[in-house]
User: What shape does this take?
Amino acid sequence: METNYISDLAVHPGELLAETLEELAMSQAELAKRMGRPKQIINEIVKGKKSITPTTALELEDVLGIPSHIWLGLENEYQMVRAREKEKEQMEKESSMVSEFPYAELAKLGFVKATRKAIEKVEELKKFFGVAKLAQISQVKAYQPAFRVSNHTSVSHEAIATWLQAARLKAATIETEHFDKKGLRSRLPEIKKAMLEKEINEALQKVAAILADCGVALVLLPHFKKTKINGATFWLEEGKKAVVALSLKGSYADIFWFSLFHEIGHLLLHDKREIFLEDGYDDPKLKKQEEEADRFAGDFLIDAKVYEEFVINGDFSRASVEAFAKRCGVLPAIVVGRLMHDGLVKYNNLHLNGLRDRYKWA
Assistant: This one.
């Protein structure tokens, strides 16, 4: 059985050439004459300063009888070992960057192998992101939105890029139909109805199935430290598959369902070429799109006119909220969360806080 093996020791083919000339009692000058080459070229090959080309390998085969593939094999192995040495030096330089990435979270999810060695982490992260150097991550279009997040303090752009790539890899494994905007819009009531399921994980199974039928992969990921991102929307397979990725940050039902419909809003309202990170930008254009997605989610969950009438009535008692939620076909948590967001009731309102369901994720 033939085995491909690359030594860790860089041996230039010039060493074999020097040994062969010694065995044949042939001088470098004589070899140069027989090959029709300058003596200096032969000397540079022997000293390991010059590479052996296919033409040189054929000429050495003619003169010395050693097959050309031997010379080229040695040359290729030598160059590969040298390249790996340089790559290792680069990884050692980049090992200081590892702390910027949520490596432990990735290892826990099985995206990278668990290790304490910084250089091994660099190697794993390069494979995870599909880059030759960690420094290139910010230059890759798929990750650039993470480095544009600006309206949060104490965030790690590298952590956000990591979360995005984890979502991308997970989405790639989910089978869906081709994206159907009209179909998605028509099935929104089914998705809304699913929130009324008693058990959240059963609800998520229904939602994921509906979305997959419409060409949308639903990805749920744990929250990574220093990301402060609730969700993201992007596209795969040249726009044939949409991805809604949600961070299981916190556990309040109103935040989760609002985030879901916010991301769906992006799919229905905005350009496929964009990658949207929920609530992450100060850029006017991106903020406008975020606001549009917010309005879509808010108005779909609770009709704007109906909500206005409820607010004017001013009765925010527990019984009134529960009755209004039933009328709108949503969880009471959705109504409470909206009232709190709009500043109509306080976040520490013990009377209504009990209606804000908190989920336990499977």
Observations:
- Residues 91 and 119 are 6 Å apart (CA to CA).
- The longest helix spans residues 68-94.
- Residues 1-6 have pLDDT under 50 and may be disordered.
